Every structure is written in structure tokens, then in C-alpha cells.
Amino acid sequence: MSFRIDQLPKKKYVVPGNAACAGCGMMIGLKILGMALGEEAVLTIPASCASVVQGLSPKSGVAMPILNVPFASAAPVATGIAEAYKSLGVKGHAVVWAGDGGTSDIGFATLSGAAERNSNIIYIMYDNEAYMNTGIQRSSSTPLAAWTTTTPMGKRERKKDVALLMAMHGAPYVATASIAYPQDFYRKLKRAAEVEGFKFIHLHTPCPPGWRFDPAKTVEVARLAVETGVWILWEYDHGHFRLNPPSTVYADRAKRRPLIEYLKLQGRFAHMTEEQVKALEEDVEARWRSILALAKAFPQS
Amino acid sequence: MKALAAQKTALTGNYAVAYAVKMAKPHVIAAYPITPQTSIVEKLSEFVERGELNARFVNVESEFAAMSVVYGAAMAGARAFTATSSHGLLYMYEATWWTALSRAPVVMAVVTRTIGPPWNIHVEHNDILVLRDSGWLIAMAETVQEVLDLTIQAFRIAETAVLPTAVGLDGFVLSHSTEPVELPPQELVDKFLPPRRPDVPLLLRPGEAVTFGNLPSDNRDHARHKIATVYTAQREAKKIVSQVDEEYGRLTGRRYGGLVEWYKAGDAKNVVVCMGAWCSDAKQAVESLRRRGISVGLMRVRFVRPFPEEEVAKLDQYDRVIVYDRDITPLGGVLGTEIKAHLSRAKVVNIVAGIAGVDFDAQNFYETIQKALDGSYREVEFVV
């Protein structure tokens, strides 16, 4: 499936009146979600930036049905919606739109429960790599060395790889995506909608105020994450693991752009020493080793 | 009419819940096992597995997830049921409040059990009472038959009042005791319990852009919503509980009295107030005391929420009001504290007993009622 961005559906599901920051990466993702599943999706949104920026009740800046729910409850609430629809004969997709905190930290047990029992939901973790809604505090999805207000000297631990953990649950469909590659994300949403059972998409969504970069550069930062190899696009579809373009070529380390090009655009990495940059490079390399080993172990049939 | 003849059988309290839920035909059931609630979930999963109940049974990894699943299902228009106990209820606490303030008409059985530490699986009422400020309706059964009847009624009450409803049954005392029970015929339950309206409190469907629960543009709208849900809807629910009790009584021959049951209180000078299974013991004690010429009756609280204010106000005509609580708070017991707020304080003796599963039988009631009447008890008395 290959198409240009201007061939994506035109109907808008993110409309004026939303309260997102300038250059919000998450809202770009939400637009693409609307294009792919706007008429079929019922969104469950836990406490997160997304619960704030949708606009003020009784109005809304997002033209899809939305149920706002407590922080850790999104996966089981969506499960309840999916089960109700199954029982009542209603067609549609129960979709979770949750941040990295709600997914990888406070919601991780309920997420794992939904994955293990193969709940028929599409779970999208939009990852802005910290608790941005409460003002840039560390999450388990914050990358190594990144500054946040609760890691003032830089985070000492590596980023939790939630998508891999979901794949290791044996979920039928797991993918990573980036807002810099809307066609890829769109295709993955469409694929997820075809699959019965638990679907998980880990979407990389840069955050200008939280990462300390110019709001005009959101897409550039997202693209550089992929081009430097920090963010790897892959999918795990019914036991088969594969890299997706353009990450496919970056399996060769020599083809990647230097990590520093990604880091230097962002104030959250400004404090880093050479050793810290090196440690982060090693962390990125370790991730690639895992992904390549998995692609080899679970090849396309 | 033979088809509508009730079936007589013997069931534990937990199986009575399961049979009642089966007859209520829920679309979605989700629960996490906890002693002494477990056999409710086991029986329901068996019904579903055997095809006797056409529901989606969701095995979850925690009580928080159980409440979240039934919440999502109820918001999507399904009839949904869960059951828990003690720490399970505490673990799902955040979701119970969200459910109430969303007006999701979920039904939950709470098999009342002590809160730790230390670990203790025996009866106490503190667990179910943590729901009392949230907007949930809360009923407490006395017998296994009432467990069954209340569980069927709870769906009707929840869906009419558009509030989640909890049915309490005492751990082990009811949950694991087998009593003779009349099972109403399915046709009768179908008639009593119309299908769930999927558009209340809202219609959540793909393609219908509706947003529920986002930040308010005006906090006063939120305040009004809270008043309507936590206060006003409770008042409206009083009428619903009474009407449902009457209608169910007409159909089955079993009326319980609505929010409270009065027992031999009409001619009495003093009155005992309690709720749950031990009311049967209290009634025995009242009977014995009356035979000895002591003027005492009883008011059994069937619904803690909505709080039976009008009935409680009638307690003022008695010389002494002895309120038994199987729960403890820094002020004494919950019932004692709430009833005192409606009466002249001097006439109320609040006895906190039977907490942590300590046995408290008819003889204990017999002795403590006398002590309360002869003035040897303080305003709040603990009996262990």
C-alpha cells in the first residue's frame, strides 16, 4: 500500500477549539487516527494530555466519540466497550488513545491483562516520553539521559520498550509508528482494524515544550528520531516480525545519521556529556540488536 | 399457571447471586476472585461456558480492571455485573466513583468481609460502606432468599435510577450458608426486568461524536452534575426502591418493606436498628425480650443508600434507639453516626460489635440490648 499524503481522507476529526500546544505531535497522530478510523472508532482516553487538549465540555475539539476515564483504566474500559458491542451486535472499534505514563507506568498492569486475554481493542500509546500533562516529569518511557523536572541531571535508566513487551505477550498485532510517517501509521491503523484480538501501536510523538525544541520542528524531530535509529519502525503481525521502511535501511548502522543531529535540536539533551552521548548510542545499538534478532527469529513467511 | 410456578431449591448466598444474575441476562460480566466472593464468579463462568447464560464473561487481572470493564460495557449500553469483597472493593475504588458520577447503571455484589491488616476473611461491613459518599445505591440482605430477590431488583433499580447499585451479603454467614430458596420463573423476571436502554446515560456509538468526561468550561456545570448525581438522584431513588419492592412483591409474594423493614416495632417503647444477616439473630433476641416483658422492636436497614431519612426520623418516637454497627469509624459506627444526625442524640446508643468477624449471636444481642436499656452503656460502646 503506497500513496501520497495528499491522498489521505480529507474529512477532519481534529477541529478548531482544541487546546493543544503549538506543534503538538500527539495531535498530528490524532488527525491520522481520524483519517483511518474516524467513523468506526470509539475512543477511550485516560488522564493525559489528550484528555485536556480535546477541548472544554460541553464542547469538544475532536469529532469522534470519546469516553474519558481514570488513569489506569483505559484498557479494561475499552475491553468493556468491545464486549458490549459484541453482545449488542454493534459494529465498531474500541480504541484506546493513551499517553506513555498511562500506558507504560500506571496502566501497565491493566494493559498487560488486556493483551494476555486478547481483548479485541486497538490500543495506541502516543509516546511523548514523559508526563507532559503534569509538566514534564519522568516516565518509564523517558529515554536515557533526558532531562525532565524529576530527572534534573538526566534520567539514569533506559527507556522501557512497551511495544516489544506487548509482542512478547503474543498479541496478534503490534507495531511502532511515527507522526513523521503518516502513511505508515495510517496503514498500520487500517491493518489493526482488520485483526481480531489485541492490537497495540506505539506512536512516537515529539513534544515541543517538554523536549525543549522549536514548535515548528515537530515533524523534523520525529523524522530525525527514525533517521538516527533512535526510533525504529517495525511490526509484529501474527508471529511474524519485520522492519518497515524507512527503518529497514537503518539496520545498517552506517546508513543512519549521527545521533547528535537528533539530540542537538532538543533542550532536554543539552546538558549531555560525551560519555552520556556514548551511553545513549550504545543503548540505541542494543535496541537494534534486539529488533534485528527478532526479525531473524520470526521472519515473514 | 404452571409455567409461572416458582421453583423451590436450596442455595448458598453466593449461588443465589449467580442464579439471580443469570435470570437478569446481563450482556457483560467481569470479576476477579476474592474470598468469600469467589463462588459467584465460578458459578457465572460455568453458566456462560455451558451456554445457559448468553453473556460475555471477561476474566480480568484485578478488581480495578473488573470495575473498569463493567463501566465501559455499561457506558456502551450493556447490562453489566461484577462482584467483589473487602480489599477487592478498595482496589477498585477509583473506578467505583467514576462509575457513579458517570451514572453507569452497573450492578455489583459485595460479599462483605473484614479489611486488614491482619488478613481476615470473615464478615464485617466496613467494605461496602466505603461506597456511601460516591453516589452508589447500597442494599444489604438478611437471608439467602433476599440476596436472590435483591440482586434481581438491583438491575431494575440501577437502570431506573441510572445509578450503580451494590448488593451486600455477609461473608460466609450468607455467602456460604445454604438456605431454602424460591427461584422465580424466568418469564416472571423477564416481565419484571425490561431490556436495558442503551441510550442512558448516553449513546456511545461509532460515528456519533459525543465527548463524555472532558474538562468543564464552567466548574459550576460540574458542581450541578455532582449535586444531581450524589444528592438529588439518591432522593429520587427512594421512590424507585419502594415501587420496585411493591411490584416484585405482587409478582412473587415477597415484599420486604422498601428501604427498611419494621419488626414488631409498632407497639414497642424501644427499638433496635441493624442491617445484614445478623438481623435474624437480633430479631430472635427481640422476640425473647418481648416474652420477658421488655418493650422492644426492630428496624432493619435494607438500603444504606439511599439513606432512609424519613424512616429514621420515625425513630424519634422511641425512648431508646440501639444502633448496631458491624463496622468501625473514628466516630463509632456508620449507621450510629448517621442516625444520630437525625435524632436527639441522647436517646441513641451505638453498639459497635462483630467487627473483624467476631461472632455475635442472638444471646449476645439479648444481653447487650438489656445493657443498653438499663443505661450501662456509653454513647458508643464496643463489644468484642
Task: Describe the protein's architecture and organization.
The complex is a heterodimer of chains A (301) and B (384). Chain A is an alpha/beta fold and 301 residues long. Chain A has a single domain (25-297), classed as Rossmann fold. Chain A is built from eleven helices and eight strands. Chain A has helices spanning 25-37, 49-53, 74-88, 100-105, 108-116, 162-167, 182-194, 208-211, 218-227, 259-263, 274-297, and strands at 41-46, 66-69, 93-99, 121-127, 173-178, 199-204, 234-237, 240-243. Chain A has an eight-stranded mixed beta sheet with strand order 2-1-3-4-6-5-7-8, sandwiched between helices. In chain A, helix 7 (182-194) links the parallel strand 5 and strand 6. In chain A, helix 1 (25-37) crosses helix 7 and helix 3 (74-88) packs parallel to helix 5 (108-116). The longest helix of chain A has 24 residues, at 274-297. With 384 residues, chain B is α/β, with parallel strands linked by helices. Chain B has two domains: 2-252, Thiamin diphosphate (ThDP)-binding fold, Pyr/PP domains (Rossmann fold, 3-Layer(aba) Sandwich), CATH 3.40.50.970; 260-383, Rossmann fold (3-Layer(aba) Sandwich), CATH 3.40.50. Chain B has 13 helices and 16 strands. The N and C termini of chain B lie far apart (51 Å). Strand 2 (66-69) of chain A pairs parallel with strand 9 (211-212) of chain B.
